[in-house]
Amino acid sequence: MSVTSDIFATYKGPRKIFARLLSQGCHESVLLAFVMGFCTLTFVSQIPVRARESYLNGTDLNTLLAGSLMAILFVMPLILYALSFVIHVFAKLGKGRGTAYHARLVLFWSLFSATPLILIHGLIEGFFGPGPEKTAIGALWLAVVLWFWSCGMWQCYWARK
Q1: Which residues contact 156 (CB under 8 A, 6 or more apart)?
Q2: Whole-prediction pTM value?
Q3: Alpha helix (H) ranges present in the chain?
Q4: 11 neighbors 148 (Cβ within 8 angstroms)
Q5: Distance between CA 41 and CA 101 in Å, rounded?
Q6: What is the pLDDT along the chain (161 residues), one digit of tens a residue?
């Protein structure tokens, strides 16, 4: 299946998609593509936000975008790799049978598959600014990520034989 088909299929049944991703074997290049895809789309979602900020505050848009680019595309992947390692350690303490690769797969795919909501969140914040709409979409994104992540952790750490 294509990546976009997998993303939409994750909303229907995340455990089935995680089982299929596990059956494809361990490929670190795939995980890097997932995390960089998530970071790239997150940066794209910040463009309307930074444009609004630039217009309202009279600051240079290029400077704001450069700061976002540095933080999201260069720092965030490192933080996510570290977070996945911490998740793996806690899962092992909970008698999970997965590996550090599985923790990365679950975290990166959960974030990557929720990017449609991140893009909507960026548009709402860019056009309307802070408000209940932004908060609702942000809460929905968080709930979806946690749902995908919990299903993936179960599939990778406790449901496997």
Answers
A1: 18, 22, 96, 98, 102, 103, 105, 106
A2: 0.92
A3: 3-12, 14-23, 28-57, 61-69, 76-93, 100-113, 115-128, 132-153
A4: no
A5: 23
A6: 688 999 999 999 999 999 898 888 888 999 999 999 999 999 999 999 999 999 999 999 999 999 999 999 999 999 999 999 999 999 999 888 889 999 999 999 999 999 999 999 999 999 999 999 999 999 999 999 999 999 999 998 887 65
